[in-house]
């Protein structure tokens, strides 16, 4: 495959409304590109919101800008990237492979299919690509679903020009991949395009596109960090993980029997397991008890749950509050030497926690990290969905907040 020998140029544009987003974009670039970000002033009406008058005005100027850059970089390959993108890894090699023998390579709009997202476009500067952008200028953006992107898809899908084009791989991820087909960010993600941010009402408050993009940036960073940590934990505990999984399977069999478990049962079982972990840790680091709600709140923020309505989870917690408190009391009362009426499986699990937690925690002093890693292994073993993990973490956060408020901190540890 022929390589692109010149230092590749990356072009983008931004307005006053998007200055904070621009900082994320430029600060995350990993490749050694020649970066050119053009300031376009104010977008005008709409505060940077999708489908506002200012939005359509800027899309028009963007196409004019690209026509200018194609002429200035004739026969070279350039990249155009929307400013609402953050980078996670180098991607020049993937780009060179995708553009080889083609005029265009685009980010996919969906997880499958051939609709393109023009927010990340690799462009070979020649007569054919120049003609495409001149043709796009003939469209009325305001009557199209996604302005210039709809125009580009119409041109490509209807074969209105003879350009040769292709799609970039799935590592070039966009929120629209999830919105259309529930495709979560891959572990080897290279870019995240924060699209799908049409303004919406949340609890009666209007949230604009810029705020939604910033929230999306943070959510995806948290999610990717959590996935990398889970991969690291799994690799570090490869041998122990197998033993842990086998023992936990046996405990799960004793607890559940042969009955098929629904989501609610799985969450309840996971709650028992996590609370037992917390109990063991608190035997060695009592002060960690007060930080338990904050720790699990952080775990909640690392989940990938866009457009998730958490209000129903709060209602469910209130309905189950008494039961969850009783579970904590059951776990608190466990004495391995005098099990009493405690179920055998819970005794076995507490003993396993005691054994698996002590060595890594005492050796490293990282009790908080050990708790998080063991929790990850539990959730991975039980194959909990992102939603189930959110419910679980919410229940733990609120239950331990309530314990702290009611003065049960000392007795629990």
TrEMBL record:
One Pfam family hit: Nucleotid_trans
InterPro entries: Nucl-diP-sugar_transferase, Nucleotide-diphossugar_trans
Residue ranges constituting the Nucleotide-diphospho-sugar transferase domain according to the UniProt record: 46-170
GO molecular function: transferase activity
Domain of life of the native organism: Bacteria
Keyword annotations of the record: Transferase
Protein name per its UniProtKB record: Nucleotide-diphospho-sugar transferase
Organism, scientific name: Mucilaginibacter gossypiicola
């Amino acid at each position: 495959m022929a390589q692109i020998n010149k230092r590749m140029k990356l072009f983008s544009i931004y307005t006053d409304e998007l200055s904070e987003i621009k900082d994320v974009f430029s600060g995350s670039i990993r490749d050694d590109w020649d970066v050119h970000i053009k300031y376009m002033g104010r977008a005008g009406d709409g505060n940077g919101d999708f489908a506002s008058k200012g939005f359509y005005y800027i899309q028009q100027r963007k196409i004019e800008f690209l026509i200018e850059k194609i002429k200035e970089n004739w026969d070279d390959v350039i990249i155009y990237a929307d400013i609402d993108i953050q980078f996670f890894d180098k991607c020049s090699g993937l780009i060179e492979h995708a553009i080889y023998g083609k005029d265009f390579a685009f980010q996919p709009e969906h997880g499958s299919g051939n609709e393109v997202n023009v927010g990340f476009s690799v462009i070979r500067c020649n007569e054919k690509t120049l003609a495409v952008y001149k043709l796009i200028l003939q469209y009325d953006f305001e009557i199209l679903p996604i302005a210039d992107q709809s125009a580009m898809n119409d041109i490509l899908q209807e074969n209105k020009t003879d350009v040769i084009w292709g799609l970039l791989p799935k590592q070039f991820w966009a929120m629209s991949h999830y919105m259309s087909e529930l495709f979560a960010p891959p572990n080897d993600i290279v870019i995240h395009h924060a699209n799908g941010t049409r303004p919406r009402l949340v609890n009666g408050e209007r949230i604009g596109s810029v705020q939604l993009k910033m929230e999306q940036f943070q959510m995806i960073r948290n999610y990717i960090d959590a996935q990398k940590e889970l991969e690291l934990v799994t690799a570090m505990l490869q041998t122990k993980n197998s033993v842990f999984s086998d023992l936990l399977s046996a405990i799960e069999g004793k607890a559940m029997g042969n009955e098929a478990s629904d989501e609610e049962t799985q969450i309840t079982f996971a709650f028992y397991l996590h609370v037992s972990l917390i109990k063991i840790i608190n035997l060695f680091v009592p002060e960690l008890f007060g930080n338990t709600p904050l720790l699990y709140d952080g775990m909640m923020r690392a989940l990938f749950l866009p457009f998730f309505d958490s209000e129903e989870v709060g209602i469910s917690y209130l309905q189950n509050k008494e039961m969850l408190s009783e579970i904590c009391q059951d776990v608190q009362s466990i004495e391995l030497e005098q099990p009493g009426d405690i179920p055998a499986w819970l005794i076995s699990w507490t003993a396993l926690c005691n054994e698996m937690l002590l060595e890594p925690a005492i050796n490293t002093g990282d009790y908080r990290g050990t708790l998080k890693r063991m929790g990850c292994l539990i959730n991975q073993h039980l194959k909990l969905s992102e939603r189930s993990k959110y419910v679980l973490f919410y229940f733990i956060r609120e239950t331990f907040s309530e314990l702290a408020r009611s003065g049960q901190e000392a007795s629990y540890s």
